[in-house]
Amino acid sequence: MSHDPHDDHHDDHHDDHHDDHGHSHYDSPASRRARSTFEVRAMALEAALVENGVLTTDAIDAFVDVMEHRFGPHHGARVVATAWSDPDFKQRLLADANAALAEIGVGGLEGNVRVVENTDDTHNMVVCTLCSCYPWPLLGLPPTWYKDYAYRSRAVIEPRGVLREFGLEIDPDVRIAVWDSSAEVRYFVLPQRPAGTEGMTEEELADLVDRNSMIGTGVVPIPA
Amino acid sequence: MGGMHGFGAVDTDAVESSHSPLGTRAQVIAMLSGGVNRATLEAQDPAVYLRSHYHDRWLTCAEGRLVDEGVLSDDQLEHWREVFEHDNAATPPRTLSDKGVEGLIRSLTTTPLLHDPAGSLLLEGDRVRVRRMAPRGHHRCPRYIRGVVGVIERALGSDVLPGEPADSQREDYFTVRFDSVDLWGDRARDGEPAYDLYIDLCESYLEPP
After folding, report:
1. What is the 3-state secondary structure (H, E, C) of chain B?
2. CA B80 – CA B59 distance, rounded (Å)
3. What is the pLDDT of residues B112-156, one digit of tens each?
4. Average pLDDT for chain A
5. Suppose B92 and one of A46, A171, B15, B177 were both cysteines; which one would form an S-S bond, judging by CB atoms 3.0 to 4.6 Å apart?
6. CATH code for position B178
7. Whole-angstrom Cα distance, residue A33 to residue A3?
8. Which of residues 203-222 of A touch B (CB under 8 A)?
9. B195 in A contact zone (CB under 8 Å)
10. Is A34 on the interface with B (CB under 8 A)?
11. Angstrom distance (rounded) from CA A214 to CA A115
C-alpha cells in the first residue's frame, strides 16, 4: 500500500549483510544489480556529507553495525528463555528491566525498557501510533508491518481484529492490554512458556521464541 | 494515527526492517548528520508522508533540512546522483574519524534512562484527564486520548518535554491506563470486548478529571 512506485522490488540479498561484518555495504552482491532511485539518493547523500567532512565513513559503518548486528531479536529471545528458566531473574526483569538487562549486557539506544508479562488473564501487545518506537537493543529494527499505517492506526481501536490477521485468536476471557509507546519507555512482551518445554535448556527455549511473540502479535507455540 | 480508519489489513508478511538494503544506512546517516528528528519527520506534507516508505521519509527530510541549512547544496546532491545512477561500480568516498568510533559505539550501547522525579504531586492510582489541546508542531500526545479520563498506573521519572533541548526544565512522566470503553464506546458487539490501553504522558498533558 505504501510502496514507492520507483522502488517496489524487494531486496533478495538482505541476508548477505550478516556476513559482511565490518565492511562497507557497497561490497555486497546487492551493489551489482541496478540501483533503485532510493539507493541512488541515499548514496548521494552519504557521498556529499562525507565529501564535506560532516560525517566519516567509519562512524556510519559503526552505527549501522550496531543497528544490524549488536541489536536484534536474538537478545530478546535469550532474555525470554532466561526469564522462563530463572524465576529470580524473571522477577528482577519485571520489576526493573533496565537493571536486569544490564546484568546480561543488553542495552543501548531506544533501550529504556519495561517488560510486560503475558499470563492466563492478560495478553499484551505493543504499538507506537505516533511513529514506530521499538526496543532496538532487544528486538533490532522493527518489521515493516510495525511501521505501516494499518498496524499503527488499528492496534489501539481493534486489537483483537488485528491479532486475528496475525492468525491469533485470544480467548474472550483474556483481557488485552495494548501499550502505545509514546514517550521514552519501550515495551517488551514476555510471552507465556508453552507446555511440553519442561526439560529444555535455555538455548533450546530461545530457539522457540520469535519476534512477534515479543511484540504480542504472536504467542510461542507448543513445540511439535 | 491511532484509531484512524481506512488503512486496510496489516500486511503481516512484510517482515524485513527495510524495503532496501540501504534503508538502515540512510536512516543512520540522517540521524548522525542531525538532519532528522521526529519534529522534522512530522512536518512533512501529510500527503507525501502517507504515500512514502518509512526510510524515504527519513531520506527526504535529511536532504531538505541539510540543504536548507547550507550543509549541502542541491547541485552537490545532483552531481553524486548522476554518478551513482550511471556508474554501478561507483561508491561514496571513504574517510576515517580522527578520534575513532569507540565513543560513538559506547553511546549507542548505553541505555538512556529517565531522571529522578521532578516533584509532581500526582500519585499512582490517581484519576487524570488528558487535556484537550491543539498544539502546533511536535508533541507526543495522540489525539485519540485527548479529553479522556484514565488512571495513573506508574510514575516513570522525569525528562525534558518532547523536542526541547536536553538542558531544558524536566517534567514528570506517567504511564496512564485507559479503559477502551472510555476511548471508543462499548464495541463488544463488534468483536472487541473491553481492553486496557496504556500510554506514557508528561504531566502538562494531564489535568484533574
Report:
1. CCCCCCCCCCCCCCCCCCCCCCHHHHHHHHHHCCCCCHHHHHCCCHHHHHHCCHHHHHHHHHHHHHHHCCCCCHHHHHHHHHHHHHCCCCCCCCCCCCCCCHHHHHHHCCCCCCECCCCCCCCCCCEEEECCCCCCCCCCCCHHHCCCEEEEEEEEEEEECCCCCCCCCEEEEEEEEEEHHHHHCCCHHHCCCCCEEEEEEEHHHEECC
2. 15
3. 999 999 999 999 999 999 999 988 777 789 999 999 999 999 999
4. 88
5. A46
6. 2.30.30.50
7. 20
8. 211, 217
9. yes
10. yes
11. 10
What CATH code is carried by the domain that includes residue B81? 1.10.472.20
Q: Tell me which residue of A42, A44, A38, A18 sits closest to A29, measured CA to CA.
A: A18
Asked if A190 and A80 count as a contact pair (C-beta separation under 8 A), the reply is yes
| pTM for the whole structure | 0.89
Query: Which of B60, B78, B110 is at the close of a domain?
Result: B110
pLDDT digits (tens, 9 = 90+) for B89-123: 999 999 999 999 999 999 999 999 999 999 999 99
Asked if residue B115 is part of any domain, the answer here is: no
Does B52 lie at the interface with A, CB-CB under 8 angstroms? yes
User: Which B residues, 90 through 119, put their C-beta within 8 Å of a C-beta on chain A?
Assistant: 91-97, 100-101, 104-105, 107-114
**B136 in the same domain as B79:** no
Q: Is residue B68 included in any domain, yes or no?
A: yes
DSSP symbols for A81-129:
HHHHH-HHHHHHHHH-HHHHHHHTT---TT--EEEEE--SSEEEEEE-S
Q: Which amino acid is at B77?
A: L
Shared domain for B135 and B83, answered yes or no, is: no
